């Protein structure tokens, strides 16, 4: 059976090709396109502006170093987001003061529609739902919590999570299934 590899969009292909050839313009274009997303992801995970700026810089260094490894199995933005998350996790491991932030306010990772369009009652209801979901996710075992967050909140595929965690896809599917089931049970009991 042949592995499926997504064909990168034409601009992605040109950008990666330019990076591989040392084109400074390609690196500037990469920075222009992705700096906001990288910074936002890093800030949501690390919760500190300076740490997010450091993660932004480290991510671009890692992207530059690893651009020859990009195979097009996923979108360029997904690949870069995965590098960003790995950089943030490594920063957390290196600096224990950030460890608490990893299990922080998960509701900030979920993007909701414009709050100005909601009534006070809807806002109260959403706040309560976020509180319950945050408490439910926090109560899961670490390996279930991580998979549920990456898949359901961050949008990573089963394959991407398996590659990132270096475990079989079946293991990720199982953890996701049991994590969701435990979360549903906790939410129904609350």
Helices and strands, in order, run as HHHHHHHHH
Helix content: over 70%
Largest sheet: none
Please provide the count of β strands.
0
Strand residues, percent: under 5%
Question: How many H/I helical runs?
Answer: 9
Estimate the global geometry from the Cα principal axes. globular
What is the average per-residue confidence, as pLDDT, rounded to a whole number?
Answer: 78
Termini Cα gap: 46 Å
Strand pairing plus helix content: what structural class? mainly alpha
CATH fold-level topology of the largest domain: Rna Polymerase Sigma Factor, Chain: A
**Uncertain ranges:** 1-8, 97-115
Report what the structure shows.
- This protein has 9 helices and no strands.
- The chain is an all-alpha fold and 190 residues long.
- It folds into 2 domains: 102 residues, Orthogonal Bundle (Rna Polymerase Sigma Factor, Chain: A); 88 residues, Arc Repressor Mutant, subunit A (Orthogonal Bundle).
- Helix 1 crosses helix 2, helix 2 crosses helix 4 and helix 8 crosses helix 9.
- The longest helix is centred in the first third of the chain and has 23 residues.
- The radius of gyration is 18 Å and the shape is globular.
């Amino acid at each position: 059976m042949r592995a499926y590899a997504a064909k990168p969009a034409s601009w992605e292909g040109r950008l990666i090709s330019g990076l591989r050839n040392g084109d400074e313009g390609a690196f500037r274009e990469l920075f222009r396109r992705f700096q906001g997303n990288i910074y936002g992801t890093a800030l949501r995970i690390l919760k500190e502006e300076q740490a997010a700026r450091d993660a932004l810089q480290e991510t671009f260094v890692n992207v530059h170093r690893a651009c020859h490894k990009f195979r097009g199995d996923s979108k360029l933005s997904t690949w870069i987001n995965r590098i960003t998350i790995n950089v943030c996790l490594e920063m957390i491991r290196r600096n224990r003061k950030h460890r608490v932030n990893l299990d922080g306010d998960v509701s900030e990772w979920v993007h909701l529609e414009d709050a100005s369009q909601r009534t006070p009652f809807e806002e109260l209801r959403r706040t309560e739902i976020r509180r319950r979901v945050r408490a439910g996710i926090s109560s899961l075992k670490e390996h279930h919590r991580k998979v549920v967050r990456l898949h359901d909140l961050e949008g990573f595929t089963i394959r991407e999570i398996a590659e990132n965690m270096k475990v079989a896809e079946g293991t990720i599917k199982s953890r996701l299934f049991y994590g969701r089931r435990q979360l549903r049970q906790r939410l129904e009991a609350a």
